[in-house]
Amino acid sequence: MVLNPLFLYMGNMISSDGLFLALSLIWITLLLWIIHRPNTNLIIWHTLVLFIAFTVRYNALIYPVIAAVVFLVSRMQVRKKLAGAGTGILLCGLFVLYTGNKYQALTGIWQYSPFSGWLMANNAMYAYRHVDSAARKPVPVRFKTLDNMIRTHFDSTRDVKKYPAEGLMASTVYMWSSGMPLYAYRDKQFKKDTTASELRKWATMGPLYKAYGAYIIRKYPWHYLRYFIWPNANKYYAPPVEFLESYNSGSYKVAPIAQLWFGYKSTRVKTRTKDLQIKLLDFYPIFSGIINVVMACCLICFFMLDGLRMNMLFRKGMLLAGAIWLLNAGFTIFASSAALRFQSFPIMLTTVFTGLLLDWIWKMGIKEQHEARQIKEKDQQAKLISEALA
Which of 122, 233, 231 is CA-nearest to residue 169? Predict the structure, then answer.
């Protein structure tokens, strides 16, 4: 938790990843305090941290639910439990309502996150790409133009050597690349509207892309499981280093706006290393894969060894960690994209609690050996006494 090179590299990025990691660590710490030593001040601090984290990253969508359960099983008074669980959910709900109303004023459609629509269409395209052209089913009229553009794109980019982006598995290239069908269709829809901002164009397409993505997933569920869910599960198991594998995305130049913002003398940047590559984090995917397997095995052993009957506070802590681990895995695999910067908090959380579980299993083993030794000694004493009496 202290001597971790990941902190240095995440802190060096102009991104919300480092901020969200810090907020998540504070959040889990507050939950542990609520379990062990609950008080009114913790309710206030937790509500504040939860709300800020919720506004920073979509991964925090699962946080209010987890927090509510922790409050309900804590040793607080009932009214404080309800206050702790309710205030966090209320503030997050108000943020959702406020954001949705802002998007409705901008696009005419209420939605919390256009990003989710783009992401669903992106994910569905990874399944749709592998559907044979003869097996493609007709789509509703409102999707026809978009669907034709996507089909044409797939048919013309079969050669992955010529089009390497098409060979990527469970990525987000379809939703961020300007040359892809989703952006091309968006620009076509706003061809006559020269006054529309980039935000309005992007947000307006969210509901349509969400509906289209959901339709494709329903029509081809097997392809979706095979070509998106399974590859994304593998990426969650061992998250790629992604943007953290090189400084400045591998470029020696920055945009003029970055030069202006940081007061650089020119757009050219340099590093203290010989090249822009970062090698120090290459062990993380392997480490993450190992720790995920060990965590799963430890949780199974925890239940098999009647861990639920042990110390109440330890049990609650383990259940909290296990719940976050499982919910984050489900959220990432089914609705997001796995990468090291997104999974930094779950990896750290899993590492710490895996260590605690291993320590508990080790102590249980020593305890059982000691009890078995005592039983053996008592049996031997009883045998000696019976022989002496005989």
Answer: 231
d(CA 331, CA 312): 28
Segment 33-48, tens digit of pLDDT = 999 898 999 999 999 9
* Long-range Cβ contacts of 359-367 (<8 Å, 24+ apart): 360/302, 360/307, 360/310, 360/314, 361/298, 361/301, 361/302, 361/305, 364/305
Alpha-carbon distance of 133 to 253, in angstroms, equals 42
* Helix or strand run (H / E) with residue 191: none
Q: What is the pLDDT of residue 302?
A: 86
Q: Rounded CA gap, 141 and 276, in Å?
A: 49
Bridge partner list, 268: 253
Q: What distances in angstroms separate CA 201 from CA 105, 109, 187, 196, one per listed residue?
A: 13, 13, 8, 6
**CA angle (160, 165, 169) in 5-degree steps:** 90
Contact status, residue 205 vs residue 189, Cβ threshold 8 Å: yes
Is the per-residue pLDDT at 139 higher than 90? Answer: yes
Which tokens belong to 171? 């990525």
Distance, in Å, from the CA atom of 385 to the CA atom of 380, rounded to the nearest integer, reads 9
Segment 166-187 mean pLDDT:
89
Residue whose pair of structure tokens reads 């296990």 in the numeric block: 322
Helices (H), the chain: 5-11, 17-36, 40-56, 63-73, 78-107, 114-128, 144-156, 173-176, 181-189, 198-204, 206-219, 221-224, 230-237, 256-262, 284-304, 312-335, 340-389
DSSP secondary structure letter of residue 228: I
What one-character DSSP code corresponds to residue 268?
B
323, 364, 378, 379, 383 from 374: Cα distances, Å? 38, 15, 6, 9, 14
In angstroms, the CA 91 to CA 87 distance is 6
Tokens representing residue 254 in the block: 């920055």
Task: Using DSSP, state whether 160 is helix, strand or coil.
Answer: coil
**Alpha carbon of residue 207 to chain centroid:** 23
Query: What percent of the chain clears pLDDT 70, i.e. is strictly above it?
Result: 100
Q: Identify which of 95-99, 128-132, 245-249, 386-390 has the greatest average pLDDT.
A: 95-99
Q: Report whether pLDDT(53) > 80.
A: yes
